[in-house]
Specification:
Layout: H1 2-6, H2 9-22, H3 32-59, H4 69-104, H5 114-147, H6 153-196, H7 222-229, H8 234-241, E1 248-252, H9 260-273, E2 281-286, H10 295-304, E3 309-314, H11 321-327, H12 329-348, E4 357-363, H13 365-371, H14 376-379, E5 386-390, H15 398-404, E6 416-417, E7 423-425, E8 444-448, E9 456-458, E10 462-464, E11 467-469, E12 475-478
Length: about 475
């Protein structure tokens, strides 16, 4: 009963439901620690909502049911048992959900201690937020008691709330928030460097990151090293497509240069060194927060064009996307913009019949930043060839404008825009298969509002003009 007397029973119930919802499948796999933080925050938000509902019930003067003390104890214990059951079941099911996403991305499965890590991290996060909430309440009461000696009670309460809000905002925004973000960023930087040590540099000294490369291997983080070394090789592509050349991948890490413009210029020089502008396709990919580039998209591009591709990306943060979205948003926008501008300005000066086709790609936070990397009036005279943006998290910018102005009668979750001549949307239910050829415009976009584009690997495909096509009409890789 001490637990019931300390916490709101309704808050615990709603918090448990929010905890379970936070474990449902996500666009990108989460680490156990990050999932625990998100689950703890979700539990706290649900708890606060339950507390507000309880307070509103009392404020409106709605009478409670007349029950005996033992009936109330039985009810409270039953609710606590339901909360515990919901949490345990969601943790068990959450492992299956995360492993299903990790299997699609060829990542290591969640270990047996994963649910324990999630639960302990979530509990710690909830208790921290709960203590902060109790502190906020204490400040409000102290200020109210002092002020109500001079002003009416309701005015005193308003003053107390404003005082607590201002105090918390000043502390967290000015001191604790910056210090916390610095500690988190430094921690992830050390983890990034630690993980990166297990990946050796390319054996070929002329490849990006090799001995003759302008980009030093020691300056490339874990995700950058994985991007440069784990893509399909010329032999693997040749086995599928019949003929191939070695794809080009260039990645600039945060430690490769001191500023975004210097990193972009370094990336351009490396692209020129390896002959990227003589390839058929040049893809400017904007990674997620920690530098991850979706292999399901870039690998497929390299297979479809038999390795006659060059892909460039630049890291802008050590943090996972949810944290980078808040902490490193401006750095991400600047990085995406200067990389695109530097590459585009050089590309635009090349003869049209001797330069590659340029495309943009981004997944999740990378999609949002890629959208912000250019303005249409900057490229209208010499447009790029297209873009693939998969699930930008905030749905703003180009994405939101197109959805708002979609063709009448088409749903927001799978819209059509001007008959699909320039922009097309797709999701797991289709929307991009069996369409008419693109219009005459030189600028084409392909957008996915829900999930990233994954090209399936299957048998029984036939060779079409743009790649291998499955019997169902989907692009795939021939096995």
């Amino acid at each position: 009963m001490r637990l019931v007397n300390t916490f709101s029973i309704l808050g615990l119930l709603i918090g448990s439901i929010c905890f379970a919802l936070s474990l449902t499948p996500s666009l990108v796999p989460r680490s156990d620690f990050m999932q625990g933080i998100l689950a703890g925050v979700a539990f706290f938000v649900g708890y606060v909502f339950g507390v507000i509902l309880s307070w509103l019930w009392k404020y409106l003067g709605i009478p409670n049911l007349a029950v005996s003390p033992w009936q109330r104890r039985l009810f409270d214990r039953s609710v606590l048992a339901v909360c515990l059951l919901v949490i345990l079941l969601s943790l068990w099911q959450g492992v299956r959900w995360q492993n299903s996403i990790r299997a699609l991305m060829s990542m290591e499965r969640v270990g047996s201690v994963g649910p324990i890590t999630v639960a302990m991290t979530a509990l710690f996060m909830f208790l921290v937020l709960w203590c902060l909430g109790k502190g906020f309440q204490r400040i409000v009461l102290l200020v109210t008691r002092y002020v109500e000696q001079h002003v009416p009670e309701r005015v005193a309460m308003l003053v107390g709330v404003l005082a607590a809000v201002l105090l918390y905002w000043a502390v967290f925004n000015g001191v604790l928030l910056k210090a916390g973000l610095y500690v988190i960023s430094s921690t992830y930087q050390r983890l990034d460097n630690s993980y990166a040590q297990s990946i050796p540099p390319p054996a070929d000294p002329n490849l990006p990151g090799g001995a003759n490369s302008l980009i030093k291997w020691d300056d490339i983080g874990n995700q950058g090293r994985r991007f440069l070394t784990l893509g399909p090789t010329e032999e693997q592509i040749q086995e599928v497509a019949g003929s191939a050349i070695q794809p080009i991948r260039v990645f600039v890490g945060l430690d490769s240069a001191s500023t975004p413009i210097k990193r972009a210029q370094l990336a351009l020089e490396e692209l020129k060194r390896v002959g990227a502008f003589r390839r058929e396709i040049l893809l400017v990919a904007t990674p997620t927060g920690a530098g991850w580039v979706d292999p399901g998209a870039v690998n497929s591009l390299e297979f479809l064009y038999r390795g006659d591709t060059a892909i460039v990306a630049a890291q802008y943060s050590y943090l996972p996307s949810p944290i980078a979205l808040v902490a490193d948003d401006l750095e991400g926008i600047e990085s995406a913009r200067v990389l695109f501008k530097v590459v585009y300005d050089y590309w635009a000066e090349l003869p049209e019949n001797e330069r590659p086709r340029v495309y943009l790609f981004g997944l999740s936070l990378g999609a949002q930043l890629s959208e912000d990397s250019f303005d249409f009036y900057d490229i209208i005279d010499d447009p790029i060839d297209g873009a693939l943006w998969a699930g930008p998290p905030l749905g703003v910018g180009i994405w939101s404008r197109i959805v708002r102005n979609r063709d009448p009668g088409t749903p927001a979750w799978l819209p059509e825009f001007k008959g699909g001549e320039v922009v097309r949307f797709g999701n797991q239910y289709g929307g991009y298969i069996g369409r008419e050829p693109w219009g005459s415009s030189g600028l084409r976009f392909f957008s996915m509002p829900v999930i990233p584009l994954y090209f399936s690997v299957c048998a029984g495909c036939w060779k079409g003009p743009t790649g291998w096509i499955s019997p169902e009409g989907r692009m795939c890789l021939q096995t």
